[in-house]
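Could you join me in thinking about how sequence relates to backbone shape in a protein? We need material for that, and I hope you will provide a protein of your own picking. Label the sequence line and the structure token line clearly, so we can match residues to local backbone shapes. Would you write everything just below, so we can both look at the same thing?
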Amino acid sequence: MAVVPATETTELRLATGRGYTARTILNTPARDASSTEIPIIDISPIFSESLAARQGVARKIHSAARHSGFFYIKNHGIPSEVTGEAYAACLDFFRQDMEFKKKTDANKEESLNNGYGAPDTQRINANEGIDIRESYGVTYDPQIDSTIANPGSIPKEASQYYLPGGHPWEHTSDLPAFKTAIVRYFRACLVLARAMTRSFALSLDLAEDFFDSKVQYPEASFQINYYPPILGAGGALVPGDPKARQSIGSHTDWQLFTILWQDDNGGLQILSPEGQWINAPPMEGTLVVNVADYMQRMTNDKYVSAVHRARNLSGRERISIPFFWGFGLHESCEVLESCLEEGEDKKHEEVKCVDWLRLRTSYMLDVENNEGR
């Protein structure tokens, strides 16, 4: 564990599903993470027929999930051609004039978070000012999931949370390569996420298929982020500054886990257990995986849903593509009995996934509708 010198601290306020909490952070400059803080895990054995090989990866995931909650994965099975085409397509989309980008508005209730989010309209952490990012949301569509033979046969309890007719790609018809590239990468992420779900089950000494039924009709999405440079922001971010501008504010993810592709400009920062911001710089050929709230709750806080943020200080535009993966919204999440020590009480009650989503999003401030909350 890295040694952190004594220094001044600041209190950072964070939204949770139960209101707000505070974390003490060190006012030292962010530093690059060590290889023990955010390890690189070769996950190629998870595709092996050898259970012992798959268990070997699971043990490494277990170690990372208990410490920082973040790790890189390499040999993950997604070709660089796929991520490269998605990256190029994203740049083409975000470099368009605003009138074209706004054809789909993710802030409209009927969009179910599909489409475009303009700069200065999102604030994921009210304690750190307004997010200057632009975004584009793509939620799960069973029509592009190879495991779903007949989307029309999905039970109503699950299908009610999917956008009827699928994503409104017609609004990006001026960039046909955008749909092609994003759908191709989304499909690849579905395959990887289901394999990783089994690895997480093994990491908890559960049957490999323990979570399979809960992700048959998953909650999954891209939130493609376009980060312009933060101009004149080389110093420390001061929580509580109403004039602050952040790439994306400090938060945890609320599902099972997230798989992130990031370009080579960097900007992802993770709050270490000691309260130090550490950089997760891009590593060629890797993706970043982080534990999210469901996983922390199910393990009775043994796995860490770590606080993280993005600060694009590169002076260049930055793209990141997080793939959020979780149980279907019709499912529930509860502490696993196997994660309790003898005599240990459960720290979290069972919660329906859709209720957890609503609780989490209720504390994420929409600038226009929740100013001053």
